[in-house]
Write the structure tokens for this entry.
Amino acid sequence: MIEKKCREILDRYHREKGNIISILQDMQESFGYIREDAVNWFSEQLNIPASNFYGVATFYAQFYLKPRGKNIITGCCGTACHVKGSAPIINSLREHLAIPEGGDTSRDGKVTIESVACVGACSIAPVFIVNKKVFGKMTLDRVPEMIKEIS
């Protein structure tokens, strides 16, 4: 199955140069993240070192090297959000959703919590985004409200 999907992606870009970003985008769209076995397959097929793929994938924040949950919770950790308490809210979310220590995705693959430097909504800090729905002026008391969005 992986080879079939990879072949479809390769067929779209085989004749173009400078296509690593496009291949990575399609790979992530097909598999949900950048798979090591898929990178190695493309590396071999195109005679491009796998390190070139990883160099691009790790440079751009849009690429993920690990599977992500079906639901994404983004917590802003910029200065305004941090000062207004985003860190304890993130910790509470991790506890409520049983996210393993050091991890960002629940064991069941239902939720991924990510922290970002700034979402650009400082006037409503602290800000969290659940599947593209914005929660401004968040508090610990409102954590269950956010969790309902993914239930």
Summary: The beta strands are 71-76, 111-116, 128-130, 133-135. The chain is about 45% helix and 10% strand. The chain has a mean pLDDT of 92. The longest strand covers residues 71-76.
